[in-house]
Amino acid sequence: MSFDATAWSASSSDVNRAAAPPATSAKGWRRLSSGPAAAKTLRAGAWLAALAVLVAAPLLVTDYVLTAILVPVLALALAGIGQNLVTGYAGQLSVGSAAFMSVGAFAAYDVHLRVPGVPLLASFAFGGLVAGLVGLLFGLPSLRIRGFSLVVSTLAAQFFFVWLFTTVGWFSNDSASGVISAPRLEVAGVDLASPAGRYWLSLGVVAPLAWTAHNLVRGRIGRSWMAVRDMEAAAAVVGVNTGRAKLSAFAVGSFYCGVAGTLWAFAYLGTLEPHGLDLDRSFQILFIVILGGLGSPAGPFMGAALVLLFPVLLDRVGGAVAGGSVDPGVLQNAEKIVFGTLVVILLVKQPAGMARLVEVAWVRLSRRRARAA
After folding, report:
1. pLDDT of 91 above 50
2. Whole-prediction pTM value?
3. Domain range for 218
4. Where are the alpha helices (H) located in the chain, listed in sequence order?
5. At what angle do helices 97-114 and 148-167 cross, to 10 degrees?
6. Average pLDDT for residues 309-337, to the nearest whole number?
7. pLDDT (tens digit, 9 = 90+) per residue, 176-216?
8. Residue 93 forms part of a structural domain
9. Residue 1 lies in a domain
10. Domain total in the chain
11. Residues 6+ apart with CB under 8 A from 181
12. Where residue 168 sits, what CATH number does that domain have?
């Protein structure tokens, strides 16, 4: 007997109400074509269209947009996917995402430095695996504690690894400052050091991992995570191994954060110091998932885009309105106030995040099309 829980999504009854009953007339057929099957097809088409735009991005935008916006958005979205697996699907609170990112980055750096000839992508995978093992270790307290106590437990990882990478010089090849530098960005003999190459590298890593995570949460292991999230006692009664489900969520989520850390350090920054991925970054990743939508495949991407792009937009608008007559510090604080206010409004009006807003808008559009048909 298995517990078949499903991830949060738009209510199927809402979508069903958007479609008219089957009919043989032309009008009835048009209404039928607006039903759940058509919505699923159009949703898949939207994903394909988005992927096509991402693939063509180097031809459409400048090098600055590629390196300063798209690459960090992809890296943080991947970290958000890892956070989403732990918090959104398994229901385990964690604020150690940046620590697991730093573990992945330092592990990838060391294996590439000390193992001659190791491929770049193999070092990325190694960094993710080490981060996954570390996440599994720090997820052990979840077997006995939950809620705020678990937050404190994962918070310990943040401070521990900053201390470890600062104190033990071996991890940074005995660098006086503790800073590590990116290895040569080359895959199969192709140099990826250019802005377009860094973007292609990031997209080539993020896209298949995002697709894998989407399929993972729809399978048996994903259903066990959601069973624990929704009602752990009931999940245990019906035969779900709740301990294994929690630990696997921490391991897989930390793996994703570790790979995201390698992209952040190597494809985006080029260097990384022990304090480069601190507690503020962990909270940022948590906000990305909350704002984008917990338990939503598209949520981390929407949240990462909002967190990174909205302050830039506010800066441009503020600079255009105020010009040089306002002190930059005052303008920066005003931007934070506006951004924080909008975040609060979003959470109050739609706690399920931006992905839910898009879902609701899509259902309403389907209803209008059905009524107009």
Report:
1. yes
2. 0.84
3. 12-372
4. 12-17, 26-32, 36-55, 57-60, 63-65, 71-83, 97-114, 120-138, 148-167, 195-217, 220-230, 232-237, 242-262, 279-292, 299-322, 328-349, 354-372
5. 30
6. 72
7. 888 999 888 988 888 899 999 999 999 999 999 999 999 99
8. yes
9. no
10. 1
11. 109, 270, 271
12. 1.10.3470
